[in-house]
Amino acid sequence: MNVLVTYHAGEKERAIYREVLERVARIRYLHDAGQDERPRLLSQAQVLIAMSFSHGEIDGTEASLLKNVGLVQLIFAGADRIPFDLIPEQAVLASNTGAFAGPVAEHVLALTLALAKNLFPRYRLLCEGRFDRDSFNKELKGGICGIIGFGGNGRKIARLMQAMGMKVYGINRGGKTDAPIDFVGTMAHMKMVLQEADVVVVTTPLTRKTRNMIARDELQWMKPDAVLINVGRGDLINQGALYEHLKSNPDFRAGIDTWWREPDHGEDLTLGYPFCELPNFIGSPHNADQVPGSILRATRTALKNVKRYLAGEDIHGVVDRDDYL
Q1: 206-221 pLDDT, tens digit each
Q2: Residue ranges per domain, the chain?
Q3: Which of 108, 142, 150, 194 is the most exposed place for a label (fewest CB within 10 A)?
Q4: Domain spanning 101-283: which superfamily?
């Protein structure tokens, strides 16, 4: 089986390719090929492994050569920015779901604790010489964490929240899980989960159906002192509605790692609303998954999925194009 890697893989990544796939596939790297060699490699490829397929790994004229590709496996988890016009119609597209779940879960816990304990507003007061011991923190133990998008990331987040003494309510497409949580349901249970939860974590993929899934009404359903964390995609939450809700409800808190418009390298972040002026808001620059070794671990996870495909077994993370097109 001919496996073609379309992105620039470093030597440490290539060592994982050799370890996992060398005995079952012929591995080629498009980055190593000259312009004359690229058409042959693309036309012979039966499996493509891409970083995200949206970074110019192949162009539109080359996509017509991918007539033998049966699987396109992504190293990254998100599929909302995939140029589906470059993916052959006959190919299965698999995202690398849950590959960065460990560091993402830790980041969620960090944002949650920082907001629940009012760390940044209290720190600012300390810097002004004010020693405020009169206001209360929010205790997580005994509360409920609602996880919207209960998949690979959700499972890891659930374990950390359970370690904090919280119950966990999950929502996913099928309304089923084998994870030991207190409740799992579908989007039909969204209102109940939002009303009950003390912490809400959004980690669902961004699709046509989930865009603006949390807007004015959904925010109104939540507790006045709830903590809302988004590590999915910015457009899962309506930007204007969130800003107005935070401004009108000072006990409500939000932490954002994924933004509505994320700048390219070297550009400044621009927002439609002055979130950073609010004391009940914190953010991070979409770096929840950025820890040493994360790409290597994600590479291994993706390649194990490819190995299952080559063995004729069921694979994880299959993307339904109708969710995006």
Answers
A1: 998 999 999 999 999 9
A2: 2-97+293-323, 101-283
A3: 142
A4: NAD(P)-binding Rossmann-like Domain (3.40.50.720)
Query: How far apart are alpha carbons 245 and 228 in whole angstroms?
Result: 11
- For residue 55, pLDDT beyond 80: no
Q: Look up the CATH architecture of domain 2-97+293-323.
A: 3-Layer(aba) Sandwich (3.40)
Token pair for 216:
């004015």
Under 8 Å CB-to-CB from 110, ≥6 apart: which residues? none
Burial of 69 (0-12, 13-18, 19+ CB in 10 A): buried
Which pLDDT tens digit goes with each residue over 9-50?
999 999 999 999 999 999 999 999 988 999 999 999 999 999
The DSSP secondary structure of 254-296, one letter per residue, reads EEESS-SSPPPTTPPP--SS-GGG-TTEEE--S-TT-STTHHH
